[in-house]
Amino acid sequence: MTTQKPTWIPLLVLIAVAVLALFTTSVPGVMPTEGLDTGDTAWMIVASGLVLLMTPGLAYFYGGMVNHKNVISTMLQSFIAMGVISVIWIVFGFSLAFGDSLGGWIGDPRTFFMFNNVFDHKLSLGSTDQLKFTIPFALFAFFQMKFAVITPALISGALAERINFRAFVLFMVLFCVVVYAPLAHWTWHPDGFLFNLGVLDFAGGTVVHMSAGWAALAGALYLRRRKSHIESNILPPANIPYVLLGTGLLWFGWFGFNAGSAVGANGLAVTAFATTHVAAAAAGLSWILFDVTRGKKVSALGFCIGAVVGLVAITPASGFVTVPVAIFIGVVAAIVSNIAAHWRASSNLDDTLDVFPCHGLGGMVGMLMTGIFATSAVNAAVAENGLFYGETALFFKHLLALAIVSAFAFGLSYILLIVTDKIIPLRVNEEEERLGLDISQHDESLAE
User: Per DSSP, which regions of 112-237 are E strands?
Assistant: First the structure.
């Protein structure tokens, strides 16, 4: 059993938050009921649960792909996000993302500090009440929490098998506050600057997948290569059935992710539900068939990765495009990500589980496809149709947003990695890497 120097700091921080909660909690007023729809509310409760299910799904998806010495640590990095990010979201994370806008760049952390003013908040958001709800505002806040939870968990796949667990938790906290919350505010708050620019992101291609993908690339570059990667001694995946199970949970949960972003049980939710499924199916097939053209066998791992890429790519477009277009998006995204993953495997870039090729590039493909294929015939909120329909403005706005978000997410993530490394060393030492993170970080192991 390995030993670790004890520290009181994390526990004291949590106790301080708990005590602060007692002194900042006010008795909520009467929850608004006029305009509420019970069907919409019921669906959004289910959708919120589905989105949370995606994080355990991601744990199985990633856990099955790493080697047997790192399964528990890799899976725990997803599960710990459910604890850490949920608490941060209550304290000030939701305020940073959806509080009163400070110039379109960030929310005022005082607006919903400690979730005050959430349960009795009016059923609208924005300086002129642009975004109106038929569900309790608190339910919207918890739905959005689940997006904040899974985003930093996605990053862990690029850092697997060499990241210090405590350092990862600190980085996750900093990423949520400095990168995720501003992007959510820019994109989804009615006063956010990308929202007002006219950029469309139905369910998180920009906010979730591009941000996680660029952070993953920054992490892979900063942490450098695993010893096994340098020696070309990569161990096989620990458990392919885990990957299949994780894919199933992700696919199922993604219906809440995308269809839930309609924020109601309506026709738009049905469209998002349909495009989500079709894109995943087409992308899974596209990935394995593209492998076949290179002489590879059809693999369970290939279909699973392809399906997830399709889910990623359709996410920003799911409520803006037609179902046939979703097939095209899935096929193209899978081929692009497959090519990128194949190139990465032959390079010196050690993105352990290809987070950037799959989530980063998948999110970018989806963002551009939204600028090409979005149409007001699907969603009346589309003010400018996509390039495919003869209009250019939306596409060029998406190009601009892609450049801004990419620079912001990559640059700040790299800086946060440096800051984290100064506080807690990011990378485990060579002996800990050899033993595996399950033993060296947690004194637990997966029975073979």
Answer: 124-125, 131-132
The CA-based dihedral angle spanning residues 223, 310, 211, 81, taken in that order and rounded to the nearest 10 degrees? -70
Element (H, E) at 399: helix 393-423
Tell me if 438 sits within 8 A of 72, measured CB to CB. yes
Q: How many residues does the chain have?
A: 448
124 three-state secondary structure: strand
What residues contact 257, with CB distance under 8 A and at least 6 apart? Answer: 47, 50, 51, 54, 147, 203, 204, 276, 315
CB 216 within 8 A of CB 168: no
Helix extents (H) in 66-164: 71-88, 94-98, 137-159
CA angle 6, 11, 15 (to 5 degrees): 155
289 within 8 A of 282, measured Cβ to Cβ = no
Q: What percent of the chain has pLDDT over 90?
A: 90
Cα(377)–Cα(329) distance, rounded to whole angstroms?
18
Q: What is the pLDDT of residues 190-243, one digit of tens each?
A: 999 999 999 999 999 999 999 999 999 999 999 999 988 888 877 789 999 999
Query: Residue 48 in contact with residue 64, Cβ under 8 Å?
Result: no
pTM of the model: 0.95
Q: What one-character DSSP code corresponds to residue 202?
A: S
